[in-house]
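B., you asked whether I could sanity-check this one before it goes into the benchmark set. Here's the sequence:
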Amino acid sequence: MQNDRLSLEAIASHVDAKAEDYCALSDRIWAAPELAFEEHRAVAEQIAMLEREGFRITKNVGGMATAFITEWGSGGPVVGILGEFDALPDLAQESGRTEHRPTVTGTPGHGCGHNLLGAGSALAAVALKDALEAEGIAGTVRYYGCPAEESGSGKTFMARAGLFHDLDAAFCWHPSVVNEVQTSSSLACIQAYFRFKGRAAHAAAAPHVGRSALDAVELMNVGVNYMREHMPSDARVHYATTNAGGNAPNVVQAFAESLYLVRSPHLPDTERLFERVTRIAEGAALMTETSVTVQITDATSNVLPNKALQEAMYENMRRLGPPAFDAADFAFAGELQKAALTDEEIVASVKPHDLSLRTKILHDGVLAMPVHEEVMMGSTDVGDVSWIVPTVQCHAACFAIGTPFHTWQLVAQGNLPAAHKGMVLAAKAMAATAADCLRNPDLIARAKAELKERNGGREYSCPIPNDVTPDDLRAKAA
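And here's what the prediction gave me:
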């Protein structure tokens, strides 16, 4: 039985009533960027606001000091809205500039727009709570404060701790250059350090007594490169040499280390590919008479799209329409495109969506849902949530078309009015779709049935081993 008191218009009105406060929250987080697991000020800012809104607060969840849950209401359905707030290293940038001008060189910046992501999700949770409270409607609204998406997979640790298992539906968004419901899956991934230990020696006087760990790192890389021909074309393996054993060529390096990131569209395939990479490392150790240890530090599951929730969110976004960008928004975005973005970047940003958008400055429409489901060639810890509970995401246009993520160009736009307008649209879309679930139990039932079909009856299994803790990742982030 539906409850029409939670109309789209009512939800949008509640979002608009609090939008100014939460845009200001986003700007404060933008101005004080914090890296993975260190988002203490962002967390304190959000908790203070949500506590004033009447939410119950649970801090330090999932073994992370910057992970928290806020909750309002009681009984079912239980809907959760996911927020992020971590920044990226070395991306400090002055706002509203069309040239690279760091505020303080070498300090973090919000190069993925997570200042907007967390504030917008909190705004959606508050607006939904206000709508339920005004109408006296039962239900539970949660906002999940999720740290370390960029480097640490905070949601994966939260999933491992069982923090999403009693949800009926989950909602999230990401700032973007387009307005759309995300229908694509993502790549599951496993990241690990391969640490080789050998024996030091004088490289000229007694090289025969040494066993080079750096040789092992290089041989592992050669082996993985030969493997690339014999792995699925939609899989990916990336690496970095994180410790080359020192700077002295006359020393046989006793220790060397590389960091590998293995990705594939499905977690079981990722696990099998990671096993192959591990065997190559063991072979490299065997050839060089060194030893190797493997430490998994990061892993995420692939996103399981949920068409039932996607269709509901798309209908809300279609009715809401795009952000109401004004002449000033278009003017700055156009200046940035001319001064700081290449034609190649513009094409790359819209190619996954609609190439005709390459002539646009800001996206002033809502993309139709595609007929075929694609795979996004990236990874996100939202995937782990989607294996546990029906989950849906939207993108909202906050930046000039062509803006690459993880760059100063994005940071420069992260607290401008155009970004705020995209954030408000996303808050309305999330809150309205969550309201649809509360007023229409059949929608939740269909979404859950679809999840069961998509996961093939396979229970969620956390891809991060139980012996890896957030502390391990915090130590590496430091």
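One thing to flag: The longest strand covers residues 188-197. Otherwise nothing jumped out at me.
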